[in-house]
Amino acid sequence: MTRMSGAEAFVKALKREGVETIFGLPGGAILPICDALYDSDIRFILARHEQGAAHMADGYARASGRVGVCLATSGPGATNLVTGIATANIDSSSVVAFTGQVPIPVIGTDAFQEVDIIGVSASVTKYNIQVRGARDIPWAVKAAFYLASTGRKGAVLVDIPKDVQTSVEDMEFPEKVSFRGYRVQEEPDPRELDWASVLLSRAKRPMILAGGGVISSNASRELIALAEALMAPVATSLMGKGAVPNDHPLYVGGCGMHGTGEANTLLAEADVLLVVGARLSDRTTGLVKEFSPNAKVIHVDIDRSEIDKNVETVTRVVGDAKLALTGLLERLRRIRLEASGDSEWVRRINELRELYIMPEAKGNPHMRGPEVMRALRRSLPRDAIITTEVGQCQMWASLYFDSYAPRTFLTSGGLGTMGWGFPAAIGAKAARRDVPVVDIAGDGSFAMTENNLATSVEEELPVIVVILNNRMLGMVAQWQRLFYGRRYFGVELGKAPDFVKLAEAYGAVGVRPESLEELEREIRRAIEADQTTVIDVPIDPEENVFPMVPPGKGLKEFIMEA
Amino acid sequence: MYRSLSTVAFLVENKPGVLFNVTNLFRRRGFNIESISVGPLDDPELARMTITLKADSRVLNQIVEQLDKMVDVIRVKRLDPMRTVAREMLLVKLQTSDPMAREEALKHINSYHGLILDIDAESIIAEVTGETETIEEFLKKVSPIGILEFSRTGVTALEKGRLRL
Ligand SMILES: Cc1ncc(C[n+]2csc(CCOP(=O)(O)OP(=O)(O)O)c2C)c(N)n1
């Protein structure tokens, strides 16, 4: 037992969790903790808005597989975190947020900068805790990291009143915490595996849909082995991109609203569909009753409540994806399943893949989304990390930028949060100083959190922002163009700001390439220079993202042109 | 109506915020609560909640899974109506200044094994317990007499015999 203040105990507890980096922005109610951090070697990265701090922690978590930590003061600091927390939580990203709170005696009195962040964050966190005594701080920190990083990962918020930070008590640091109501079933039930493997072995047209769960349980290798054993095509949800190298012969691309033609067509034709670690949101399934209508669906997930939530399954495997896939592989090997590389199904995969190759646009004076993606791919090393903003830029990245490894394609899949990609890129860079990190951005999205250019420059976390600048809120404009008779409302951004000058104002590099070759050159130069660089790429404001499944339609009703 | 009413019982950590989190879950996911009752157990760190609701079995399964997922929920069970005793308590104040009405009221209270808790020149307060269906039947019977106000506790339930939560 050691006597110390709550704030000191907080810092010690963080050190015990191995925390090296915190993203945040201080304020009155968190000052005692800031003062204790002053004496520690934990790196504090000052965001320019708390939303950015939460996204940075999220990007850090996704890139590294560790827990991302952010910190804010009470009231407005805490509420500014909410979008970031919600974004992390819905994408099952391990983020712990710490907020200051007004002193316990004034809680409930509408004191200065008091907000009920426990109530506010209840719907967007996996769990939240308000610490009511200094002696509970070590436990609360331990509990937060434990809950955020186990089972279905997620965001946890810990609210710490100011007087709890300052009061001095005898502290004990627990080695372990447990909750009676929190059990994680990692090991799948052998009977579930038996049944699932029987179904898979009998499939004539098996298919795999991989989600973010494959990435978070580091199950890529097992997934690829299983796909090869079955000769099954693999599609991914947006969160699953990178789970299979995108140049693998069985990879057929993303599925859903902006899925590839081959993925969405194959889903309709499959007779057994193995879903691994995906929550099957409406963006992934399209109209549920036409999502893989001929397939017996097997769902593997660590979160039991995901199974049968959106899509009805014939059988389930509850458990960790890596263990589940290993178990399935063993069983398939035991029954000596030998899938053939030249079955009708495999021929079908290749036939569709060729059918849906997007033609290169010729004669269009503008640079186009898909071509910018291919140019980016050519100029970046295989292990570069991509983050995306939200909109057309994101969907082009998903469709046309090949990712080769897990944790190299990071995107706000569940919430679709504009402004996520840039601060997330900064967070990813803090975790992976060794690889280039590129935010594929739209002009609208980037403008939402561009103030973090200051953080990127000052903290020497150089990232590259590639803006696909259509001077529009492009994806919304696409909908208005296709479904609202081109009645553009609230989507025209015009020329402001000048992103080159903006970058320069923050001390970053700003460039505006005029051709794909120049773009590639600028990317290479930015990597070489290792400086925060904003590359403003003017593109055609009229361009649409295709393929697209019109809203309310089944997946195979995708359109390839307007 | 009674037939489609399902009962879910669960144990939770008895601490502030848990009831909020449970009801917030129902609100957020668009599930509708018909009644809810809560009380602490002999272990003061635990409380037992009983929720009744109308939902098809798919939704009901989702509710159970979602509740089970909550960190502060320790155990959840959908109770089989055939193997459960369920009770609700009603307090009702009846307008009984008219002697005929008073007689009528006493008759119904008696036949439902109710208790008279308070009585004055104008009114009677009675307590009736029973299944939701019984309470509703009783209310229907006494409503011509004149109900001044009533308050119901919501359902509480235990499984029969060896079954336990
Ligand atoms: C915070 C937030 N507000 C609004 C939206 C709705 N929305 C989705 S895509 C989009 C347009 C994005 O525009 P831009 O960032 O320029 O990217 P583009 O589609 O042009 O590539 C909008 C407004 C959103 N996803 N997030």
Describe this protein's structure.
- The complex is a heterodimer of chains A (562) and B (165).
- Chain A is of the alpha/beta class and 562 residues long.
- The model of chain A has no long low-confidence stretch (mean pLDDT 96).
- Chain B is of the alpha+beta class and 165 residues long.
- Chain B has helices spanning 18-29, 57-69, 99-111, 132-142; strands spanning 5-13, 33-40, 46-54, 73-79, 84-95, 115-119, 123-130, 147-152, 156-159.
- In chain B, the strands form two sheets. In chain B, strands 5, 6, 7, 8 and 9 form a five-stranded antiparallel β-sheet that branches. A four-stranded antiparallel β-sheet of chain B has the order 2-3-1-4, covered by helices on one side.
- The model of chain B has no long low-confidence stretch (mean pLDDT 94).
- Chain A binds chain B through residues 118-119, 122-123, 126-127, 147, 179-182, 303-305, 307-309, and chain B through 12-13, 17, 20-21, 24, 28, 58, 61-62, 65-66, 68-75.
**Largest interface: chains, residues each:** A-B, 17 and 20 residues
Question: Mean pLDDT across all residues of chain B, rounded?
Answer: 94
Largest sheet of chain B: 5 strands, antiparallel
Runs of chain A with pLDDT <50, length 5+? none
Short description:
The complex is a heterodimer of chains A (562) and B (165). Chain A is of the alpha/beta class and 562 residues long. Chain A contains 22 helices and 20 strands.
What attributes does this structure have?
heterodimer; A: 562 residues; alpha/beta; 6-stranded parallel sheet; B: alpha+beta; binds thiamine diphosphate
SSE diagram, text form:
The complex is a heterodimer of chains A (562) and B (165).
Chain A lengths: L1 E4 H11 L4 E5 L5 H8 L4 E4 L3 H15 L3 E5 L3 H15 L4 E7 L15 H5 L5 E4 L6 H13 L5 E7 H5 L1 E4 L18 H13 L3 E5 L1 H5 L3 H11 L3 E3 L14 E4 L6 H9 L2 E5 L5 H4 L10 E6 L13 E4 L2 H14 L9 H12 L13 H11 L5 E4 L3 H9 L8 E2 L10 H11 L5 E6 H7 L3 H6 L5 E6 L4 H10 L15 H7 L3 E3 L4 H14 L3 E6 L24
Parallel strand pairs in A: 2-3, 2-4, 4-5, 5-7, 6-7, 9-10, 9-12, 10-11, 12-13, 13-14, 15-16, 15-17, 17-18, 18-20, 19-20
Antiparallel strand pairs in A: 1-8
Chain B lengths: L4 E9 L4 H12 L3 E8 L5 E9 L2 H13 L3 E7 L4 E12 L3 H13 L3 E5 L3 E8 L1 H11 L4 E6 L3 E4 L6
Antiparallel strand pairs in B: 1-3, 1-4, 2-3, 5-7, 5-8, 5-9, 6-7
Bound molecules: thiamine diphosphate (TPP).
The site of thiamine diphosphate has 19 residues of chain A, from helix 16, helix 18 and helix 20.
